[in-house]
Structure formats: C-alpha cells, structure tokens
Amino acid sequence: MVRANTAYVLDPETIFKPVALQVDLGIRPLYEIIGCRLLEVVRFNERHTLFVDEEGLQDGLTAFTIFEGFPQPIAGKIVLVGGDGSTPYTFPLISLEDAAEHLKRCRPVLARFSQRYRPTSRKR
What we know:
- The protein has two helices and eight strands.
- By secondary structure, the protein is mainly beta.
- Strand 5 (64-67) and strand 6 (74-75) form a beta hairpin.
- The relative contact order is 0.23.
C-alpha cells in the first residue's frame, strides 16, 4: 500500500485544491505538479511551507500570486504542505479556506498608452 499525504495546490489561473502526494517519493512529485526545474521553499508560517517555482517570474505572465510578507510576487503553481519543508511533509494543519486568505491571485493589467510627441516652439 502506498502512503500518501495531502497538499494544497494553488494555480493562479484556476483554483486552490487538495491533491494527494506519495510520501515515499519525497519532493519529486512537487516538480511535476508545479511544472518547474528549480523549487524555492517559502515559509508560510511556523507549521507550513510553500513550494514555488524559483524561475517563475518571466515575461508573458497571465497571472501571479501575492503572499503577504514575501518580498516578490510568486508566479506559477504553489504547493502548501504541513511541516518545515523537510521530508516527509505532513497534511496541512490549516484549512484550505484559511490558507487561501493569505494568498492573493492577481492578473497583470497592461494598459495601452500612447502619446503623440508635439514639439513646442519657443519664440525669442
């Protein structure tokens, strides 16, 4: 029998949902869930950890997440687990709704702005 823990996954494009993670594989499944090559570990609080894409902030973003207290936006999917980030991680001790209160999904707004240059003539 395969032992699994639950983690919460936030996809800024869609929803925040629980997923099952196979415990004996360590953090390997997180790379696939997040879709990245390099994970960054972010402390959510003293009992929880976020795993995010270290290289996620790139041109062409359609959505990102603001995590209160973290100095930069987080791009891509976010996985929240219980524990301090070491394996094996545990089921989150916080509810999905309470966790979501700390994460704000955002979409960049690209405003089109143009102004015609009009030289001013000075009379002397």
